[in-house]
Specification:
With about 280 residues, the protein is an alpha/beta fold. The chain folds into two domains: about 130 residues, 3-Layer(aba) Sandwich (Rossmann fold); about 100 residues, Rossmann fold, CATH 3.40.50.620. The protein is built from eleven helices and ten strands. α4 crosses α5 and α6 crosses α8. The longest helix is centred in the C-terminal third of the chain and has 18 residues. The two termini are about 15 Å apart.
Length: about 280
């Protein structure tokens, strides 16, 4: 999987330069063209969607720091400004410019960040890289694919292997067995070793079927006494992983808002970038 065009949503003036810097650095790491998108949300744009007429908001100057960053970038780069709901503008631009990867960092509030990643991820047929606010470098050298009952892992593994082949990264598939979920709420005695081994085979089988032509995949298994996301977070920190690769949840948007999906729980728990693939 070669990323030729990376779209970075830079946000407003308060965060634009920092977001642009992170996105440009990743594009240089991947040898990809970088597109910086600044979306201005105004009251008028919420009331009149779809208008292409330029307004005062879209004419607002991009911060000079961003202009300097794109000028000095070691890869081809461009800046685009649009007005309207962020999700719609991201999807429109990604489609028009044939974008391969969308990078999203916090724009304003944490809730807005989660909503944007989730909404774009559901609607777009391209990978979304959600990057926490405190991460300023993305190495993409060691990828981890979480393999849980609540998170689809086949597509994530296939994508991670393709990225590894194109960019020389390593991939670890980490199966996390939720002991509380496996034992059930009324099983005070826990689960047997035989049960754990059977559950491990059950979870690993679909992932192994994806195939690993060069034999670069590493498989590991963890048992989680409480929340599997917390066990995964501890593993990621100890292993020094650069990013997680997960498949997007297929639950409805309404269910996702009422109850966090497996993907969202992982994103909200781990402190590394999460690559969400369709």
């Amino acid at each position: 999987m070669t990323y030729n065009r990376v779209l970075v949503l830079i946000g407003d003036e308060a965060v634009a330069a920092r977001n642009a810097e992170v996105g440009i650095a990743l594009a240089e790491r991947l040898d990809a063209a970088v597109h910086l998108l600044r979306v201005v949300e105004t009251q008028s744009s919420r009331l009149s969607l779809g208008s292409d007429a330029p307004t005062v908001a879209t004419k607002q100057a991009v911060p000079p720091e961003v202009e300097k960053l794109i000028t000095e970038a070691a890869v081809d780069g461009r800046i685009h400004t649009a007005e309207g709901p962020r999700q719609e503008q991201v999807l429109r631009y990604a489609t028009e410019q044939d974008i391969d990867l969308v990078l999203i960092r916090p724009q304003a509030s944490t809730r807005a960040f989660d909503s944007l990643v989730d909404g774009v991820g559901r609607a777009a047929d391209i990978p979304i890289l959600a990057v926490p606010d405190d991460k300023t470098q993305i190495q993409f050298e060691q990828l981890v694919v979480p393999n849980l009952e609540t998170v689809p892992s086949e597509a994530a593994t296939e994508h991670a292997v393709a990225v590894a082949e194109a960019h020389g990264t390593t991939v670890r598939v980490v199966t996390v067995i939720d002991l509380q979920r496996a034992a059930g709420p009324f099983n005070a005695g826990g689960v047997s070793e035989e049960f754990i081994e059977r559950k491990e085979r059950e979870l690993r089988s679909p992932v192994e079927a994806v195939g690993d032509p060069d034999g670069d995949l590493t498989f590991e298994t963890l048992t989680a006494p409480n929340r599997p996301e917390e066990t995964l977070d501890e593993y990621v920190a100890d292993a020094g992983a650069d990013a997680l690769v997960v498949g997007h949840d297929k639950t409805s948007p309404l269910v996702g808002r009422l109850r966090p999906t497996g993907v969202n729980r992982i994103r909200q728990t781990v402190d590394v970038p999460v690559l969400v693939v369709p």
